[in-house]
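sry for the spam today, last one i promise. struct tokens for design, 343 residues
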């Protein structure tokens, strides 16, 4: 992993960095999955894009691998070799896959990365079993690594926050868009930090902890990852309303048709310009009109400004003299890549 020469080169380097990290982690991840029951291992392989239903080899997308890259960079930021962070990378990738399997079931999403979701391909019961197995395997992977007990405690705390965030997200669906019971932007920020940010922060913190970082450095990296997670979720919200379907794989306005409480909508509802918005949101067929009103009321601009603020906070936390400069530059490059996703 080469050091970042300049901010201008950040996105291309970060993209290559993700590839390098996946290559380093893949053997250990495959070895861990191979310890599962053969049928469960097949489902895990399907979730990671390694195989089709039935086990035939495949080369489907298994995601960008952001979390595993953060774990390796966390180890390097602590001054250790990237390989010290491999157990952390495997664990967070397993937990991330577990959370996606369960998310798809809870949300009723039939596709994931352009393929049938695992629950759709194998059935709900088998998908729940596969998710449980991945969760258990993540804990086992960390427990047997050097410094395992402390690492498991970090992972457990992140998982508790992830569950809190998922619970809030599910409860938000039953709350109104207007009135005293409405979801506020601040409640949304807390949900996003827990649901998305906790695991990103955990990835950085785990890698750093396994790399021998001090307690304050581990805590700072955890906070940086949490800010990154909120920014990432806000960007996703923007893509969900206005992103190019050819890039996102989602229909334009899909989040509005499902009446999801996303940050742009919540921010727009606070504007006098959006008085008609609650009525539009109640009619799924008027999603395009609703999206235009959300933008007119400042929802899109507010979400992007909020994402920028959280990215800036993450950058500030990474500016610690006790962290290795080269890996921190690579982390900043990765932040640039995530902040500049097409929309």
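last one done:
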């Amino acid at each position: 992993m080469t050091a970042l020469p300049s901010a201008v080169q950040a996105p291309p380097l970060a993209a290559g960095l993700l590839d390098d990290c996946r290559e380093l982690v893949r053997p250990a991840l495959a070895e861990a999955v191979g310890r599962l029951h053969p049928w469960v291992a097949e489902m895990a392989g399907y979730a990671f894009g390694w195989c089709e239903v039935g086990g035939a080899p495949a080369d489907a997308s298994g995601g960008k691998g952001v979390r595993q890259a953060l774990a390796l960079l966390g180890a390097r930021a602590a001054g250790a070799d990237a390989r010290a962070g491999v157990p952390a990378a495997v664990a967070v990738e397993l937990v991330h896959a577990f959370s996606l399997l369960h998310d798809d079931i809870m949300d009723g999403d039939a596709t994931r990365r352009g393929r049938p979701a695992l629950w759709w391909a194998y059935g709900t019961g088998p998908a729940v079993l596969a998710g449980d197995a991945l969760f258990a395997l993540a804990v086992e992977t960390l427990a047997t690594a050097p410094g395992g007990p402390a690492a498991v405690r970090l992972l457990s705390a992140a998982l508790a926050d992830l569950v809190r965030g998922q619970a809030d997200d599910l409860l938000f669906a039953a709350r109104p868009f207007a009135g005293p019971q409405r979801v506020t932007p601040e409640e949304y920020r807390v949900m996003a930090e827990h649901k998305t940010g906790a695991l990103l922060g955990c990835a950085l913190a785990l890698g750093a902890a396994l790399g021998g970082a001090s307690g304050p450095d581990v805590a700072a990296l955890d906070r940086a990852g949490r800010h990154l997670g909120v920014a990432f979720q806000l960007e996703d919200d923007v893509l969900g309303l206005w992103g190019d379907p050819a890039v996102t794989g989602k229909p334009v306005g899909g989040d509005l048709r499902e009446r999801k409480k996303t940050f742009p909508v919540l921010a727009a509802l606070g504007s006098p310009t959006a008085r008609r918005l609650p009525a539009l949101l109640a009619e799924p067929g008027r999603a395009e009109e609703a999206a235009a009103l959300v933008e007119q009321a400042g929802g899109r601009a507010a979400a992007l400004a909020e994402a920028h603020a959280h990215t800036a906070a993450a950058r500030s936390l990474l500016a610690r003299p006790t962290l290795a400069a080269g890996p921190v530059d690579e982390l900043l490059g990765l932040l640039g890549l995530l902040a500049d996703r097409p929309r």
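Strands lie at 111-112, 115-116. ok im logging off now
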